[in-house]
Design goal:
about 230 residues; alpha/beta; TIM Barrel; eight-stranded mixed beta sheet; two-stranded parallel ribbon; 8 helices; 10 strands; about 40% helix; globular; binds iron/sulfur cluster
């Protein structure tokens, strides 16, 4: 039995990418109202053991042999860093001479134990979705003591010492960060974090799109501004 799940292999910038989820169900330190995975029953930011890692790695090895990826993208049901074997999983992928991209929401990236793990990856994605403390609490419903200030600071600190490619993903959400003042603030955050690459996305989940999605025009306008900081 394996706890991992996979997406079909795809090509991105000429590279074969295999996307893998290493969590058996959602574990995250946030509980975003628009999370496509659903509610966070397991809101945690410390590592947890899951069964079946050995058999999951055997399956991963077979997947790698069958699909011949060049990059493994760890994109999990929540925050992959809370898997207590993530270090071994990354080492295993690296032992196959493959690149690793890790998706994290970014909050944990300044903790020593997680810095060490993320530093092993060739690419790390951190995110931002709202830009006021009030919205952070209300919309992303993180662990009690978290603040937006610390969130941004954590990604900034991580990227200062990181030698890989840090990708910063910004989600534009109607009514939360799609006005001029917010865009200006996001630009400041981009400058502060100083990522290698910026990705701008919007809410496209069918359930939340109607309320929180933005039009193509606004999306293009904001993307142009943020991609040229
Ligand atoms: S950070 Fe991502 S995975 Fe976690 S609750 Fe928010 S949208 Fe879901």
């Amino acid at each position: 039995m394996s706890n991992f799940s996979y997406k079909d292999i795809y090509i991105e910038d000429g590279k074969r990418v295999l996307e893998i989820n290493i969590l058996p169900e959602k574990y995250c330190n946030f509980d975003c109202i628009f999370c496509p995975i659903g509610r966070s029953k397991n809101k945690i930011d410390t590592q947890k053991s899951f069964d079946e890692v050995e058999s999951s790695l055997i399956e991963l090895e077979k997947k790698i042999e069958d699909t011949k990826p060049e990059l493994i993208f760890i994109n999990s049901k929540g925050e992959a860093l809370v898997h207590d074997k993530i270090d071994d999983i990354i080492d295993f992928i690296k032992s196959k001479d493959l690149s690793v991209r890790l998706l994290s929401n970014g909050y944990l990236l300044a903790k020593d134990e997680y810095i060490k793990i993320a530093n092993k990856c060739d690419e790390v994605i951190g995110e931002i979705k709202v830009i006021t403390e009030e919205h952070f609490k209300k919309v992303q419903r993180p662990i009690e003591e978290y603040t937006l200030k610390e969130y941004i600071e954590n990604m900034t600190l991580f990227n200062k010492q990181y030698n890989g490619k840090f990708i910063f993903e910004i989600t534009i959400i109607k009514g939360y960060n799609d006005d001029n003042k917010s865009v200006k603030k996001i630009k400041e955050i981009i400058k502060k974090i100083s990522p290698d690459k910026v990705i701008v996305v919007r809410i496209d989940d069918e359930i939340f799109k109607k309320k929180l999605g933005i039009s193509d025009e606004i999306f293009e306008e904001i993307s142009n501004e943020l991609l040229n900081v």
